[in-house]
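Hello,

Our lab assistant flagged a job as stuck in the queue for most of the afternoon. It eventually completed. Since we weren't sure the result was trustworthy after the delay, we are filing this so someone can double-check. Below is the sequence as submitted and the structure that was eventually returned. Let us know if re-running is recommended.
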Amino acid sequence: MATSPFPATSRNPRSIASSSFASDLGSLGSGSLHLAARLLLVRRPSSHPSGRGGVRSLSVKNVAGKQREYKEPATYEGAENSLGSFAPDSDSVASSIKYHAEFTPSFSPEPFSLPKAYFATAESVRDFLIKNWNATYAYYEKLNAKQAYYLSMEFLQGRALLNAIGNLELSGPYAEALKKLGHSLEDVASQEPDAALGNGGLGRLASCFLDSLATLNYPAWGYGLRYRYGLFKQIITKDGQEEVAENWLEMGNPWEIVRNDVSYPVKFYGKVTKGSDGKTQWVGGQDIVATAYDVPIPGYKTRTTINLRLWSTKVPSEEFDLASFNAGDHPKATEALKEAEKICYVLYPGDESLEGKTLRLKQQYTLCSASLQDIIARYESRSGNVVKWEDFPEKVAVQMNDTHPTLCIPELMRILMDVKGLSWEEAWSITQRTVAYTNHTVLPEALEKWSLDLMQKLLPRHVQIIKQIDEELVHIIINEFGTEDLELLEEKLKQMRILDNFELPPSALELLVTEEESPAVESVEEVAVSEEEAEPAGEAGDEDKAEEAAAVTEPKKKVVTFAPDPNQPRLVRMANLSVVSGHAVNGVAAIHTEIVKDEVFNDFYKLWPEKFQNKTNGVTPRRWLQFCNPDLSQIITKWIGTDDWVINTEKLAQLQKFADNEDLQAEWREAKRRSKAKVAALIKEKTGYIVSPDAMFDVQIKRIHEYKRQLLNILGIVYRYKKMKEMSPAERKERVVPRVCIFGGKAFATYVQAKRIVKFITDVGATVNHDPEIGDLLKVVFVPDYNVSVAEVLIPGSELSQHISTAGMEASGTSNMKFAMNGCVLIGTLDGANVEIREEVGEENFFLFGARAHEIAGLRKERAEGKFVADPRFEEVKAFVRSGVFGHYNYDDLMGSLEGNEGYGQADYFLVGKDFPDYIECQDKVDEAYKNQKKWTKMSILNTAGSHKFSSDRTIHEYAKDIWELQPVTLPEP
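-- returned structure --
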């Protein structure tokens, strides 16, 4: 038997011998210490007080502990501590993988299957990450540097394996090692399920930000929830979209490490009382525990590895009712357990019911409470014996990713006042200087409003705090607008208050008392009674005269209340709370920020213009170009002359000078062709449809929503199909540019209209794709269960990408940036980041159509007044749909939403009919451009060149400078 790289006492020899791996466990790394052992063993510095050398294990104490001792990053004698200088070869990597297959088993000993290979490989990579992770954390502890904390309900991570080894620059050794072990790296990586922690752009942005924060060496953490079943797994059937629970955690997650020693109590319900010491206390109610699961986030070409901390919920064991269980009342015995666990079951549980709303609010508060408690514990630990709360904002920055984490505002106030003993003024000052808010939407339904009654029941202490914040805001509003014009004041209070449809606080009512005009009198003396004429006290008429005199001398008072409407619900407006309480508010694209300032929060902008900023979104070029599109990345590096563009994306602009070069264009087209072949293989695997890589690949992948207008896209396809059917075979061959129209995205489970759109797309595809007259000239494909991994295949192979939302409704978008970065030409409206992308890539390299944002309100008014006249082509395509050509499903509700002048679900609120003629004419221009492949390839190259400003690295630099006041911290060389 080969010698084990571990001491004989460390493992049972029989266990080692029992595996087929044991016979050659050390042979691949002959003569060297096993890689896993290298990562776990360190050498005492020679200056150690004991005067002895020796080996100890690297450990970092509980990050939430009160007493924490800093230890210098440890090193191993004879091996460098930096992965930059210690580059393992394929033999040592293979040995590490075999070690984990043997000693970190998630599967049976035999055979070395692909799933087993994936877990062993991931655990091997994790060894590297833990080494850097611990060193990063220890160095941050030593420096006590200011740290940013990014709170988000979503982190759409995607697969981690290829990203991690790419960032560690170990792709080559791992590919070679797995080849020696009988598998390819690509096949092994394909075994990894996408982490079901997000839904769309909001979560993907958060993940891109974490990648950039680590790459740029900014001290930061992410905080989220560990959803057991994710949003849902989408299945496409003959009935459209169906939802089943995600199973991403069923086999375990090798990237996470549970921190059983890092947990915090989270309370719901109960009541608020005053203690004997006069302090406010929140007592009683339902108590759960949030436990930390940590995921390492490596930076690119840096040792910095930051943390994504996810919370999972449970109850203490004493909450299990053993007596009830033994008595046979099992539901009662496990009730507390189920109530706690279900908080982290599903991302965005349906909120049509009161139970659903309650669960969503519990999720949001769990994220905020556990995260804030953790942040404060870490601040106290770093502060040592003397905690200066006034310095808290100098060491902590909390960024709220949309309104979901808004409860961290009253939660931070509660902890500072009720637990730490600070005054309201002190806590409020600290909170305002710590918290900042990113707005991601202008849609009213996405600007969260919670029932005040529900929140009062679930979080009574927080409602008290919110009411006091609202009261101070009311005074600011009254002071700003005065009391002379009460109609104006009432309007501003309705727009700006945090509490909607709620009575004014007593302190504000006192300011709104007005005087009614008194009867005119010449002077007070004329009605006053002289002392000589006055009747003696107690005589009849004395009281009457006194009242008469008072009535004359004192004017009557009129009380203004602005009474709430008893027929409307009382609500808490989370966006207003975020704007009032944070020191910065940012939009995520230039046009979006202007809408935020001019429309959504205009009154707040006028009051505090210095708060409002723009931070256009960005995407990481590592995952979204270098790793997902290696062929194109190699071409870019070759022509630019360096791979430095992976971090310094402004160097992509150098491609502009080569855009007409025929050699580059030939290489570019070949890379795109190879990517299209991968898309065709994915489509066949997922749907069974066979598509031709010779056709144009036209892609729209994003959350299914009416404002994103997948309906406009599919109606355009239907119109194209109808016109093709009207042509002769010769006309079709001569005039039609072949297209594969690809859709992907999830409709929220309770969003009926969005699910109708999915059904319609799949029905159109089922008809078109089996029409022998059309053949490969047109295919319509809906790729099920769209996620990051699917996007990583579709985006490199796309040639035209659709970003066609109703102008003014898409905050930014990030998929548009990913497509442009991969040399895809965009068709779209002037909405979100489309505006800035078009400016960078050049107007001639972007297909623009549709109404502008400033026109939308007028167009809707025109519709409401019955003045809109639909284009005949739009009427033609609706009639074609209703003719039954796409099956027997009744599409009256879907088509009806595009008709009428007013009413819920009607009147074409998203202006599909208005933009339809412009859209199909723009598609004709796309066809003409695609016929000239030299021109199209140049457009493609210039899109990649123009994407240089849309890296999340640039966005993070701006956040760090303008909002967080954060400095990068580079780990020293070992």
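-- support follow-up --
The delay was a queue issue, not a problem with the job. The result is valid. The domain at 630-852+912-950 is CATH 3.40.50.2000 (Rossmann fold). The chain has 38 helices and 26 strands.
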